[in-house]
Design goal:
The chain is mainly α and 207 residues long. It folds into two domains: 91 residues, no CATH class; 85 residues, no CATH class. It contains nine helices and three strands; from the N terminus they run ββααβααααααα. It has a three-stranded mixed β-sheet. Helix 1 packs parallel to helix 3 and helix 2 packs across helix 9. The longest helix has 26 residues.
Length: 207
């Protein structure tokens, strides 16, 4: 018989074994210490907790209702340890490079991109999937309007059947990047830099 606890991870309530809770708490504490001085620390941790929540939901969506230590270990294996990021940073410094390592890649999934859209994000998602400029895809769709309108029907079908990239995991999968600590950190920092740049541009326009 095991003692279970109730936890709230990224807004989702889970029942979790006590030994699993202890391991998860220790892991999240290591993550918090690692990113404590980073820009966007809370956003990065939130993104990591969101991915952990997704893993636990996948594991408990059928009959089993309790998160086990095996589930926690699988989530940690997917995300990786903070020490692995430190090792990558140290290797980059030793080589004299100030750039972060290239992201690790995984099989891609097609999503609509809400961050690169004019209408439904279909072209942005196709651009990310095929690694081409979304503007080129938009031009192709526009050209088809003058060639029978088949592209419009295709666009509407894709808008209906292709899911929207709602989570951090969806956005990384859309680009074919592994859902791990390094890529979550990279994606969130890029988003924060984009927001900062947009605010600076807005301030310049008003000045």
């Amino acid at each position: 018989m095991k003692k279970t606890m109730t936890v709230n991870i990224s807004g989702i309530v889970f029942h979790i074994d006590e030994d699993a809770y202890d391991k998860l708490s220790a892991y999240l504490e290591k993550i918090r210490r690692h990113f404590a001085n980073d820009q966007g620390c809370e956003e990065i941790i939130s993104g990591i907790e969101s991915r952990i929540s997704e893993v636990f939901q996948e594991k408990t969506q059928n009959q089993r209702q309790v998160v086990t230590i095996e589930d926690v270990e699988e989530a940690i294996a997917q995300l990786g340890e903070p020490s692995q990021i430190s090792g990558e940073d140290d290797a980059a410094q030793d080589s004299g490079s100030t750039q972060r390592p290239e992201p690790e890649y995984a099989p891609k999934r097609l999503f609509r991109d809400p961050d690169n859209k004019y209408i439904g994000g279909v072209c942005g998602g196709l651009g990310a999937y095929f690694q081409i400029d979304a503007t080129l895809i938009r031009i192709i769709f526009l050209l088809t309007l003058f060639l029978g309108g088949g592209g419009l029907i295709l666009y509407l079908v894709l808008w209906i059947v292709v899911p929207k990239a709602r989570t951090m995991s969806d956005r990384l999968s859309m680009r074919g990047e592994k859902i791990n600590l390094s890529n979550i950190e990279k994606s969130i920092k890029e988003d924060l830099n984009d927001i900062k740049q947009n605010l600076e541009n807005l301030s310049k326009k008003k000045a």
